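Morning!

This is the sequence you dropped in the shared folder:
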Amino acid sequence: RLPEVAAEAFHRAAKLGHRDSQYEYARRLDTGDGVQEDAEAAFTWFKKAGEQGHADALAMVGKAYLNGRGTAPNRGQAMVAITRARAAGSPIAKQILEDMSK
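The structure's back. Tokens below.
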């Protein structure tokens, strides 16, 4: 029951505009941790957090565009988001770029 309680707490704070909570809630939606998995909702919350400067959320937006998960695939948008996330210090973006270069 703890994952459900955590997801609900993150959701409440996310709705109030807290970017770290938006990211954490999106991660749970993306993986189904404590909530029903919902890639489209995850993308929406990652995007909200990314728009507020959350670097890892921006990387996840790029990954979603790259893989077409929760949104239509768009390589151009993916590269813009991933590059911005990497410049902001996201280790997720760094890993995505490394994986792409293999």
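Headline: The CA atoms of residues 2 and 55 lie 27 Å apart.

More detail when I'm at my desk.
O.
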